[in-house]
Design goal:
- Among the domains are: about 30 residues; about 110 residues, Zincin-like (2-Layer Sandwich), CATH 3.30.2010.
- Helices cover about 60% and strands about 5% of the residues.
- The chain is built from 24 helices and five strands.
- The strands form two sheets. A three-stranded mixed β-sheet has the order 1-3-2. Strands 4-5 form a two-stranded antiparallel sheet.
- A hairpin with a 4-residue loop joins strand 2 and strand 3.
- The chain is elongated.
Length: about 550
């Protein structure tokens, strides 16, 4: 029999080894890893990092002189709501209180123009964190929100944002959008005059052809793809580990991170399938439409009945494609089970077991905390944005009765004047041919709200077409005050000058447009259509530093009929 003191010694040794093992594990916390301690924001002193809620306007003002780099310039459909911001920044600051260092100026925006199915977030190199509102729709605890926010904060604290190549991603996205908009320029070249047998601009043609281009726009508008390539990057695992450390230290459940990864995987797979469908179907429609336009324009005579048949075929093809997508593809993928990013979950689970004891590992998400965003004011905001995005889908499918009902739901308190909500209503009215109501929706937008630059140019163009001179000038002035000269504003400015019969300014603006836009670009084609001035004019016109003082007598021979 072993002596009593020997048994006691053995037990003490066992406990000591366990404590040593735990201490060894604790020393492996990513918070103490050289990746973390090597960050220029690491000081070793906690509780120094904190951020206050900031509006988009204030964020832009902070970057005066450098606003063209801001992600919000092109991704500006964010939800500006004080209570939502307080919740988001409250979680962020609870996490940052555990960070042993400082934090650079940053902003968190909840992005409103995405499918209700999308559960993701991303960080720009400009330290702007965008959380898709779908996170609030699907999360079942504050712990899950903390996981999403903590992961993006970790990217910033570890300085991963410098390597995200956001500009390239943004450029590719906008390039795709601009290629789709080449359809608009082609459409704007069509007008059939039965008396003269001349072909030029016909607004009804534009309206119908825009429907096919709208599919690609909806794909850009609704389905987040910028973050998709990050699943396999080592930076994701690093951000997961740091987020987990901050979450545990702040008292959140580490299960919130695992659950969020599962939701994100489902959303990523779904968004990829949906976006790919939109892209391929829209590309086919665009190619077919352009081919038909080119064929008809090459004919010696274009009879009105041929144009009518063309429009009917285009409309039927678009409707068939969109409805098939809505009834088959979307429902199929919504009900489908998607795989979890196994390697990522496995790594963070192993990290959790290696570094934290059972009491931490078994800490459960506080589902009661979901009441903070699943009921009351914030829930009303999120549900209205969900209705707005479903309305956009309905518009793309041509089911306008559904779009009307969903738009009406979205236009209620507390979001009745939010820019994206009103933009959705604008799309609905415009798609149904009610220009007067579409204009009214634009004018009901909050004066301090922000829309993406590409969308502001779209709205400015529409307002100029409908004679809303004072309002469109005020809107363009606001955004150029934020971001400097905006080249996409040349077409509406030309239209306004033409309406005012200021031919000299029309010519000057057209030439200024050609100075910044390649002759075969969509922007140059729009400027040519609006002004009647050939892009070739820019090659022979004298220099003018201001771009607004071209002598009219030197340009008379440069005009061409559309």
């Amino acid at each position: 029999m072993m002596p009593h003191h020997t048994g006691l010694y053995t037990r003490l040794l066992t406990v000591g080894l366990a404590l040593t093992a735990h201490a060894t594990h604790a020393a492996d916390l990513y918070l103490e890893h050289k990746d973390v301690t090597g960050s220029r924001f690491f000081t070793g002193e906690p509780a120094a990092a904190e951020a206050a809620p900031i509006s988009s306007a204030r964020w832009i003002a902070m970057h005066e002189g450098d606003t063209r780099d801001l992600a919000i310039r092109d991704f500006g459909f964010v939800i500006e709501n004080d209570r939502l911001n307080e919740l988001v920044y409250g979680i962020a600051n609870r996490l940052l209180a555990q960070w042993p260092g400082t934090v650079p100026p940053f902003a968190i925006f909840v992005q409103g123009d995405r499918s209700p199915l999308v559960y993701s977030a991303w960080t720009a190199h400009t330290r702007e964190i965008f959380i898709n509102y779908g996170v609030f729709l699907h999360a079942e605890s504050v712990d899950e929100l903390a996981a999403v926010i903590g992961h993006e904060l970790a990217h910033m604290l570890l300085e991963h944002s410098n390597a995200l190549s956001l500009r390239k991603s943004v450029g590719e996205t906008l390039d795709t959008l601009n290629k789709a908009r080449n359809l608009y320029a082609k459409a704007e070249a069509l007008r059939f005059d039965s008396d003269t047998l001349e072909v030029s601009l016909d607004s009804s043609v534009t309206a119908d052809l825009q429907k096919s281009a709208t599919q690609r726009m909806i794909a850009d508008l609704l389905y987040e793809r910028l973050h998709a390539t990050l699943f396999s990057r080592g930076a994701e695992h690093q951000a997961d580990r740091l987020a987990l450390d901050l979450m545990v230290a702040a008292g959140y459940s580490p299960m919130g991170l695992k659950i969020s990864l599962e939701r994100m995987a489902h959303s990523h797979d779904l968004a990829t399938e949906v976006a790919a469908y939109f892209e391929e179907s829209s590309k086919t429609l665009l190619q077919q439409t352009l081919a038909i336009i080119d064929q008809q324009l090459s004919q010696q005579e274009l009879r009105p009945e041929e144009l009518d048949a063309f429009l009917t075929d285009t409309r039927e093809a678009l409707t068939k494609s969109a409805v098939e997508f809505g009834t088959k593809t979307l429902m199929k993928y919504s009900a489908k089970s998607h795989p979890v990013p196994a390697k990522r979950v496995k790594k963070i689970t192993q990290y959790l077991y290696d570094n934290y004891d059972r009491s931490v590992r078994r800490r459960q998400p506080d589902q009661a905390s979901a009441a903070l965003f699943r009921s009351g004011h914030i829930a009303g905001v999120i549900n209205n944005y969900s209705a707005a995005n479903q309305a956009v889908e309905a518009i793309g499918q041509g089911t306008f009765a559904s779009a009307d009902a969903l738009t009406s739901d979205a236009l209620s308190a507390p979001t009745y004047d939010d820019p994206y909500i009103r933009y959705t209503a604008f799309l609905n009215r415009r798609s149904q041919g009610d220009a007067h109501a579409a204009v009214a929706e634009i004018e009901e937008m909050r004066a301090d709200g922000l829309v993406p630059i590409r969308t502001s140019a779209e709205l400015a163009d529409f307002l100029a077409d409908n004679g809303r001179t004072e309002f469109v000038n005020r809107m363009m002035g606001l955004y150029e005050g934020y971001f400097g000269d905006i080249h996409d504003y040349y077409p509406p400015k030309i239209k306004l000058s033409a309406a005012a019969e200021d031919q000299e300014r029309v010519e000057a603006l057209a030439l200024a447009c050609y100075e910044v836009a390649p002759p075969d670009s969509t922007l140059a084609m729009k400027c040519a259509t609006a002004s009647g001035v050939s892009p070739m004019a820019a090659e022979s016109a004298p220099e003018d530093p201001l771009g607004l003082l071209k002598p009219a007598n030197q340009l008379k021979n440069l005009f061409q009929k559309p």
